[in-house]
Amino acid sequence: MIDSGISGSNEVESIQKQQTSDEPFAFHGKGSDYFRIWIVNMLFTILTLGIYSAWAKVRTKRYFYGNTELAGDRFEYLASPIAILKGRLIAVAALLAYSFAGYISVAAGWITFALLLLLIPVFVVQSSRFNSSNSAWRGVRFGFDGGHRQAYPPHLFWPMFGVATFGFGLPFAWYKINQFQYNHYRFGITRSTSSATVHGFYGIGIGIFVSMILVIVLAIILIFSIGMLTAMIGGGESQLSAEVEAILVVFPSFLFVYASVAAIYQAMIYKLVFNNIEIGGNRLRSSISIEYVFLILSNTFLILVTLGFFYPWAAVRRVRYLMANILLEARELDSFAAGEFDHVSARGEEIGEAFDLGLGF
Amino acid sequence: MNEVRGTWFDGGRSKGNPARLRWSNVAVALITDEGLPVSVDRENLQVSSPLPGAPTRITFGGKGSFVTGDFTGVEKLRETLALNPGLASRVERHMPMVVAAAALVIAMLAGLAFWGVPALAARLALTVPEEISAQVSGVLMSQLDAFLEPSSIAPERREELERYFLSHGEVATIEFREAGIFGANAVTLGATMIAFSDELVELAESDEELLAVYFHELGHARLRHVEQNVFRSAAWLVMLTVLTGDIGAVGELLVGLPLSVGLAANSREFEREADAFAVDRLIEADLSPMHLATILQKLEASHLRQDDVEDSTGDGDNGRNPATDSEESSISYSPLDYLSSHPPTEERVAYVRSRMAEID
Ligand SMILES: [Zn+2]
């Protein structure tokens, strides 16, 4: 099972090194604690007309990283708020340019759109570099070595190919993205590798397609049965019942379909990606299951009925579940060496964030 | 001499060394359990701001870091060295302040939504020069033209209507188009352009009814409603991006819903303003405001008829492109109507009647 990745040491040592121990991840955050951080972040952000949002982001990430434990030690988030603020200002400028260009002339609208599309791979690489080099564990930073030019096929060409083939090529694009991302992350100077296969991603494609149909059928049944029920109670044809119907049936059904499919997709992607990552002889193992989908659905429901105020508890529940279901088959965790630490601008990350390109790691 | 226990990471290798940080009023020292003293520069000492549950990270300007979960110990260190834990941390720890923060956030978000953003948009809309407005109108018209046919109304009739309209109020351009499935409609495309569909011209039984529609559109144009909508959606976009930066997809969807309902509500308010403008102008021109009510009812009836053949067309369009201000009247009793951009026709007719009553 374990390949002979390590050589050049004596027999006793190599036998010791081949024994793996299961090191679980654990998340210690609490919804009530995160609520305090979240609401104060929100307040300061509004009071400073958005400037504080960079500090808010660092505080949030520090809270989540600092409460995530692996093998007895916590993760660290080390980004500077000023770097994030710079990126955020550029992102807002780009966002405004994007939303006004289309009104000035049709050509200007298309040119801005094309330009942003062409820059996506650059943003993705910058974002991966920034996020990883500002994440650390046991005092050693992560990193990302993917180049801008290498990012174009997986992050631009193959996704476009996927869309052009009416979705049939999309799993291949996911595979290419996975190959690019998870073969270029590193911890210290040790590169991660991914052994996920293209078959795995096509399995997810089929899974998503089937579950999408199931969820839509379920939603339609739900709408009909609720419609029947309200008709029986005697909602009749009044204006009020139409509004109630919109608020209570149509929007929740749409949200239900959207959240379910998104959660199923995430669960399958996480599982495939995590189960195939290896770094310095240590492998990740994930036991994420359908429970994750129920968790996301209940989170969504609770966020909705509390008008957003459940969000901090929802975020904590989600991360706690994910961390409780990831395990590191550790072989050797003490000898990772730190690399030359490179300063990266925050631009890519924050612009990427503004255009919703979030890549979860 | 005080001390906290923790782990020293040298920043070179992923192995922690159990260690103690000791300090007094004058000196700070770090000693690992293996007895190795680490050189510590008090000048560059930095202590991370406290976060519940997360360990504190103490650095000394170099690559290494000392990490400890001993909160009370770190509090003492902060005291001795007079280190500020930061304003955020102080507010977070104080429950009444957290409650006040929540109340303030709700109040300020509501204030921004109902007052701040509209007021800012109205201000900015007035600063847009006419040339830019005309440019925007041209773009919007060319986008609409993809779905429309050239007008089949005789040029003489069009010129007659144009002269009639312009004699009651100036606008740079009046356009006519055959709208096909979109039916009877009129749109304002910025401060300088108003477009009528052939179907609307045919639907009206008198030129006064068309003038009533023209006045309504002129209201949109003069009050810069299109420009206001462009600025409102841009302001919302920026606000949401800044506020929900960390929320994630489902959160954005949830925040996006009030946004679209809010934009629709904004346009309902614009419709009322334009109706009021039209009634004022009709009275000024010694015409009955009822012309507006009549044409609104005819519009509704025509769209109800059309609905039997075609699915409703206008509503979805409004969400996607908030800039165009289409005059499709709303049809009651459809669930989507709640999110529609126009107040129900009944309500608009009732308003015209109330103004009539004022005159009598
Ligand atoms: Zn209108």
* Number of distinct beta strands of chain A: 10
Bound molecules: zinc ion
What fraction, in percent, of the residue positions of chain B are helical? 55-70%
* Overall SS class of chain B: alpha+beta
Task: Write down the secondary-structure element order of chain A.
Answer: HEHHEEHHEEHHEEHHEEHHEH
> In terms of per-residue confidence, which ranges of chain B show pLDDT below 50 for 5 or more consecutive residues?
247-251, 309-325, 327-340
Query: What can be said about the biggest beta sheet of chain A?
Result: 10 strands, antiparallel, barrel
Average pLDDT figure of chain B: 80
Major beta sheet, strand line-up of chain B: 4-3-2-1-7-6-5
Strand content of chain B: 5-15%
Instruction: State Rg of chain B.
Output: 32 Å
Q: How many DSSP E strands of chain B?
A: 12
The coarse overall form of chain A would be globular
Q: Number of helix segments of chain A? A: 12
List the uncertain runs of chain A. 1-13, 235-240, 354-361
Write the H/E string of chain B, N to C: EEEEEEEHHHHEHEEEHHHHHHEH
Share in helix of chain A: 55-70%
